[in-house]
Recover the amino acids of this structure.
């Protein structure tokens, strides 16, 4: 690995990008997590590293601008200055529905059943927000990329909610409903000998299912049984990759970064993420505050008048307060003496272009 | 510009991209309505409560917590909604005991696609139609755009997938209720930024086509007041330029033939939101370009 001398900066972000193998970005929705992930990946590629980027939160316009196809295949992204430095960027934006459909095709016992499921209105409605297979795919891809010797650094952009850590900390989060093979024992006869009807269930001495059908009807039970058996294949794979991924993520060469905006609401959910990281024993290396009041605006609001003064003044005061609150919370609750925080000014232009992302990546690299 | 008026509607869903102020708007609307004497219940369904702090109350979970005499807030869970459905609605407490005490059955329901969404909608239906004490208004601090569509399309999906039993019967009532435009409406929240406005323009026809509940208005949050005089702050001046370009795009869309003349309202940028939301802040936010909320 070669590092572009011009990018050899002493900033903490530059150090992290130069030395780590895995970076996991976490944060709640709408804080610019995907944009920050892409910008860090671009910065690392321009500093000479061979970077893989996995996003579970596809930003369509950004993907279009960078030429990334939605799905689970990696696309090569051409970044000015990267190949000169010996670096490269390959990125995948995992689209929930595409990934889910592929899973169904792969795991369904027959093509006929796969088609039946894909056409099911319930499946269609639910497949956009049932995240299990997507997470499984993300973990499997993460592992592949980390194991790929031609890859120096893998950046993972996680789903946008406070559950983000669940799939890292408890890969069995979805396995609850399987309880080993219990579900399959109960449901297989229902699914594959559906004609037995309710009496069939009774002979299985599972009166419970009789209770279930009194709420959902028998057709529903059979339908969901099929679905769950299908999911079981997925979940078993998920289990296997989950354990190994946890081992990878706990290595010293893996870093977690929280992305947040300096508002009370966002900082509150970030504090929760700090606690979760601590509880699950993952490291926390840094915090990126996006959409912050630009530095030069913090001073000089005395010269402003009226609403203008009010907006800038309250933001300056409020943002400084929540930034230090989060910093305090993190240093109190997560023992990392080297925790860094950087603020990225709110942008007043469209960030969906290679040029804008390159500019942002420079800002991240040089932030004090 | 017409006033931002939810009419006599009883159920309002707020949706929009993450991080643009849905919760803030939810709390402002709820505080205003309760001050006007309505009995208001605010509902969210989130991994972690994010409304309590805005109302200044703690430990908000599935059971309603009182903010004041006429306002309460809850964070619904699928399990809680399911229990309420079986126990309160179907009046079969013993059945629930059998079902809920079994881990496998519990997990089974959790795994059914769309089950959480259906239970959520069913619970809202129950609150406004069947509960012994009905509120005047329920405001749902709802999901971000994509997930919101999943929520809204669930009843139709359930009905089309050929289910039977009580769930199917109830689902039909729920869907009819959501489609009652005199009682139910959707408010789309956005900010005057290019990317957000583009997403809203893509999203609106989807609501129209796929959701039984219809859009009643669009609210732009964090709007800078354009007095015509140039801003002294360079940062705000650049933001205003961006806002103008985004709003131009919005106007072109909202005045186009394909769009059914959607009203939009502007909530001023106040810089930084302190919690809990104060009465003065509600006044400022809901002034809507100088006109009070009806």
């Amino acid at each position: 690995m070669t590092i572009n001398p011009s990018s050899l900066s002493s900033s903490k972000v530059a150090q992290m990008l130069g030395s780590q193998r895995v970076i996991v970005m976490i944060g709640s929705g709408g804080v610019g997590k995907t944009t920050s992930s892409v910008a860090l990946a671009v910065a690392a590629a321009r500093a000479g590293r061979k970077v893989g980027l996995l996003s579970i939160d596809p930003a369509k316009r950004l993907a279009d601008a960078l030429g990334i196809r939605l799905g689970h295949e990696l696309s090569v992204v051409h970044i000015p200055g990267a190949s000169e430095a010996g670096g490269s960027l390959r990125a995948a934006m995992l689209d929930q529905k595409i990934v889910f459909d592929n899973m169904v095709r792969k795991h369904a016992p027959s093509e006929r059943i796969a088609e039946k499921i894909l056409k099911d209105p319930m499946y269609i409605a639910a497949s956009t927000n049932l995240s299990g297979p997507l997470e499984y795919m993300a973990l499997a891809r993460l592992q592949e990329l980390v194991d790929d010797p031609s890859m120096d650094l893998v950046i993972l952009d996680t789903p946008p909610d406070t559950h983000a850590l669940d799939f890292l900390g408890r890969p069995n989060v979805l396995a609850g409903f399987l309880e080993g093979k219990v579900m399959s024992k109960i449901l297989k006869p229902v699914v594959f000998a559906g004609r037995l009807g309710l009496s069939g269930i009774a002979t299985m001495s599972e009166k419970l299912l009789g209770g279930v059908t009194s709420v959902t009807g028998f057709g529903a039970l059979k339908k969901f049984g099929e679905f769950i058996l299908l999911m079981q294949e997925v979940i078993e794979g998920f289990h296997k990759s989950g354990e190994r991924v946890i081992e990878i993520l706990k290595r010293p060469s893996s870093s977690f970064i929280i992305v947040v905006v300096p508002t009370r609401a966002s900082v509150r959910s970030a504090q929760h993420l700090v606690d979760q990281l601590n509880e699950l024993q993952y490291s926390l290396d840094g915090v990126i505050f996006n959409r912050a009041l630009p530095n030069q605006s913090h001073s000089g609001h005395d010269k402003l008048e009226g609403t203008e003064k009010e907006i800038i003044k309250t933001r300056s005061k409020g943002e400084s307060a929540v930034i230090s609150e989060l910093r305090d919370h993190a240093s109190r609750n997560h023992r990392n003496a080297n925790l860094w925080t950087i603020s990225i000014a709110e942008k007043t232009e469209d960030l969906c272009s290679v040029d804008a992302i390159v500019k942002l990546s420079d800002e991240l690299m040089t932030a004090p | 510009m017409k006033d931002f008026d939810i009419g006599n509607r009883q159920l309002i869903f707020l949706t929009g991209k993450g991080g643009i102020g849905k919760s803030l708007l939810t709390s402002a609307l709820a505080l205003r309505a309760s001050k006007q004497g309505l009995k208001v219940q605010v509902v969210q369904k989130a991994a972690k409560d994010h409304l309590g702090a805005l109302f200044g109350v703690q430990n908000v979970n599935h059971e309603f917590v009182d903010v004041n005499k006429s306002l309460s807030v809850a964070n619904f869970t699928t399990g809680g909604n399911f229990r309420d459905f079986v126990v309160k609605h179907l009046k079969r407490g013993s059945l629930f005991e059998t079902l809920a005490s079994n881990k496998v059955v519990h997990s089974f329901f959790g795994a059914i696609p769309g089950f959480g969404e259906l239970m959520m909608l069913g619970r809202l239906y129950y609150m406004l139609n069947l509960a012994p004490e009905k509120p005047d208004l329920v405001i749902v601090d709802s999901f971000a755009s994509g997930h919101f569509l999943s929520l809204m399309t669930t009843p139709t999906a359930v009905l089309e997938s050929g289910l039977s039993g009580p769930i199917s019967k109830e689902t039909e009532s729920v869907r009819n209720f959501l489609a009652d435009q005199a009682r139910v409406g959707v408010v789309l929240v956005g900010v005057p930024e290019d990317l957000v406005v583009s997403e809203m323009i893509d999203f609106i026809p989807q609501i129209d086509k796929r959701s039984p509940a219809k859009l009643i208005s669009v609210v732009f949050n964090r709007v800078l007041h354009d007095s015509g005089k140039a801003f002294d702050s360079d940062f705000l001046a650049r933001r205003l330029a961006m806002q103008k370009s985004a709003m131009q795009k919005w106007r072109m869309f909202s005045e186009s033939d394909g769009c059914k003349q959607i009203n939009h309202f502007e909530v001023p940028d106040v810089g930084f939101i302190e919690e809990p939301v104060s009465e003065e802040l509600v006044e400022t936010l809901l002034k809507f370009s100088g006109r009070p909320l009806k």
Notes: The domain at 16-105+138-169+254-366 of chain A is CATH 3.40.50.300 (Rossmann fold).
